[in-house]
Specification:
Distance between the termini: 30 Å
Structural class: mainly alpha
Low-confidence stretches: none
Mean pLDDT: 82
Shape: extended
Strand content: under 5%
């Protein structure tokens, strides 16, 4: 995780500082390619970089196998940092979830309204409807705890 942060964070900073037109990036169908183009000003280099990323990603998947190349489902222990993450995660989700529902500008009109609360309310209604109509019939998967070596997790 530290290696991922130490490589991705500086690259993200470099991409942000190299970006010259934020509106073009937001309107682009492939924002990463637009940022690469703004930095290099060369369609050939952008094409090469995007192909290179795809080729490297899929070659890792094919050569090492999906189970090795993709993150595994093995549990890991964050130690005391896990308690901090467990404490902050619901707080940050609540704060971000609240602010994401605010309108982008005032006064609010039909054209600039944020429809996120409407979609969330509809989704909540669908989920609650499914819960009350089909939730009591759901039994869940049968787990072989002994086969997993986790007999104390029942």
């Amino acid at each position: 995780m530290a290696i991922g942060f130490l490589t991705a964070f500086p690259m993200s900073l470099a991409l942000m500082f190299g970006m010259t037109d934020v509106d073009a990036v937001l309107k682009s169908s492939l924002p990463s390619a637009e940022i690469f183009y703004q930095i290099t000003q060369s369609k050939g280099i952008v094409t090469f970089m995007m192909c290179w990323v795809i080729i490297v990603y899929y070659s890792i998947l094919v050569s090492r196998g999906r189970a090795v190349a993709l993150p595994s489902s093995r549990p890991f222990n964050l130690g005391k940092a896990g308690y901090i993450c467990n404490f902050l995660a619901p707080i940050l989700v609540t704060i971000i979830g609240t602010f994401i529902c605010f309108p982008p500008q005032l006064p609010v009109t039909v054209n600039n309204m944020n429809y996120t609360p409407v979609i969330l309310a509809g989704l909540f209604g669908v989920i609650m409807g499914l819960w009350y109509t089909r939730g009591s019939k759901f039994t869940g998967p049968k787990i072989d705890w002994e086969g997993l070596g986790l007999t104390g997790c029942k």
